[in-house]
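Lab channel / #folding
Pinned by the channel admin:
"Please post every new chain as: sequence first, then the structure tokens as a reply. Keep commentary short and put observations after the output so the thread stays searchable."

First post following the new format, from NK:
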Amino acid sequence: MVRPLDGITVVTLEHAIAAPFCTRQLADQGARVIKVERPGVGDFARAYDERVKGLASHFVWVNRSKESLTLDVKHAEAQQVLGRLLEGADVLVQNLAPGAAARLGLSFEALHARHPRLIVCDISGYGADGPYRDKKAYDLLIQSESGFLSVTGGPDAPAKAGCSIADIAAGMYAYTGILNALLLRGRTGQGSHLDVSMLESMAEWMNYPLYYAFDGAPPPPRAGAAHATIYPYGPFAAGDGRTVMLGLQNEREWEAFCTTVLRQPELATDGRFASNPRRVANRQALSALIEAVFSALNADQVIERLEQAQIANARLNDMHEVWDHPQLKARRRWTEVGTPAGPVPALLPPGNTAADGPRMDPVPALGQHSRAILAELGWSATDIERLRREGAI
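Reply from TO:
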């Protein structure tokens, strides 16, 4: 099967989520991704947990279809190995500690003269310059610095997102940036440098609350799972104890909600609720009316009424229910990938296309491809064994 990135080689010095998520998507599209890992321990995300047949959930998620090369970058021959790798590479990705890649001679400035077609993507917490450039950055810290925590949670306390959204945001911008850089290289013949900041990625995602607080206006309040500035929009309890999510977007839907769901058509013209700003201002009164109706219904009956009124709704699923989600099953979104512990289910990447299919190769064991890659680069079996004895691979 022909894929968009067939023939593209990516070398990556990566750990945790942001860079591995970026490079896994490149691998999904056919790129060869060579993951350089520390001998003995590898990417520290390998040790986060043991939930997937003894393997780490984070690692299984973002590292399929890659080749693992263990290499002690401080070993005398490491620069030679990295140099030969980069001779045949199209892209270098790294999210090492601040300044580490430059100390290894892997900055864009150091590499561009020798490898003019090489695209270098640096992913960091705060970017390559500015007063925060040397600060360590983890997902929760960037959620905090970007203002995300200030608008997420309940009135009494902020709450972090349940997944690594700052890492995911940076990984997505790195992925799309690399695709753009490959297109640009096709026109100019030259590689380029990408400086992707987790803070800037999250700040982009925060533009709605930023504009809502424009020119000193109050920012959106923390409203739990409800929408801070649209109502009713969020979770409501049904009489059986289950939670139903619903969301209204306009006055036509408000009228249908009153008539078909609440079965109180007179509320549609009640002055307290005659526009979204008024419904937000009178949130408590409207919430009490909705909960009084829903308390006499089970969740399925509430959803049935919402469907009849064509009001957007959802069940509040947990992880087990997502594994068994009927829509994902109906669209055949599940497949399997190999791992060192055996095959596991894997979700196909979003975006169906009739032209190709994603690459879904195994998650590598630590150092699984070291000997093959070094042999490909010209090291003899004797030299490879010596490097193994020395702890270099």
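NK: The chain has a mean pLDDT of 95.
TO: also worth noting, The chain has two domains: 9-205+329-389, 233-316.
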